[in-house]
Amino acid sequence: MKHLNFILYSLVLSLIGHACLAQNKTTQINPAVKESLDSIALEDQRYRLPQDVSDATLDSLAQVYHQPPGKIFDYLMAKQMVLDSMNLVYVEGILKKYGYPGKTLVGKPTNEAAFYVIQHSSKIKEYLPLLKKQVRQTSWQCL
What we know:
Blueprint: H1 2-18, H2 31-44, H3 55-64, H4 72-98, H5 103-106, H6 113-119, H7 124-137
Helix pairs in contact: 1-7, 2-4, 2-6
Signal peptide: 1-19
Keywords: Signal
């Protein structure tokens, strides 16, 4: 079941983030929201490690953060969870005020930041209908 959910979430992200959207109306990008989401996109990845991280990198990180090498991953993920919680609060505020922050509000690739924050939260199932609605309401036009 988790594998199916991952595939579904990946499909939604792919549709939102990589398809070409038609610009049916003139909407000016909101620079303040864009800047904030760009910062959040960076924070969303701050302590996440790639799956193929080397032992040498883990040892270096353990030294930087004064942690035992065997505990560095858990330590960094704990720090990331704090950031994820703060990011979610901000993204939820944007969702309430503007709806899903798509390309017309924040441009590309900033439009993917809200999805990543939601994806990394425990509320992804809660927001999945909103993501699906965004996909349905968008007029698609690939160049």
